[in-house]
């Protein structure tokens, strides 16, 4: 049984990689989504596939479906940075400011060295009327970007 699950997980990873290639090489979201769906049929606990599917759906403007994917990823892995970051980004885009604040706060806690998370958290704080805290996050993002350039 464990061996079969391992094999399914391996096949799911192959479909996941094909989905990523559909986006990066062929620029074909429909084919990418079909591959992510196949990966998730084979291995429903595949957090990265849920996140990539959510990102792809979000890019197509299917925000409700995208949020469902991010929610599933977070249920499966409550400490997954990419799931919180992308759901926060989506919520900011859809004017769910309280949700965006919570998600981006969590994302910056999970990965404090990620400048994009601090930048988006600053944007969410500004929308919430917290200009001082927003400028602090933006300053942090700029410092992190400078630090990355030096490496």
UniProtKB/TrEMBL annotation:
PANTHER family: TETRATRICOPEPTIDE REPEAT PROTEIN 6, UDP-N-ACETYLGLUCOSAMINE--PEPTIDE N-ACETYLGLUCOSAMINYLTRANSFERASE SPINDLY-RELATED. This is Tetratricopeptide repeat protein. PROSITE patterns: TPR (PS50005). Pfam families: TPR_1 (PF00515), TPR_16 (PF13432). The keyword Repressor does not apply. It comes from bioreactor metagenome. The lineage of its organism: unclassified sequences, metagenomes, ecological metagenomes. InterPro entries: TPR-like_helical_dom_sf, TPR_rpt, Ycf3. The keyword GTP-binding does not apply. Keywords: Repeat, TPR repeat.
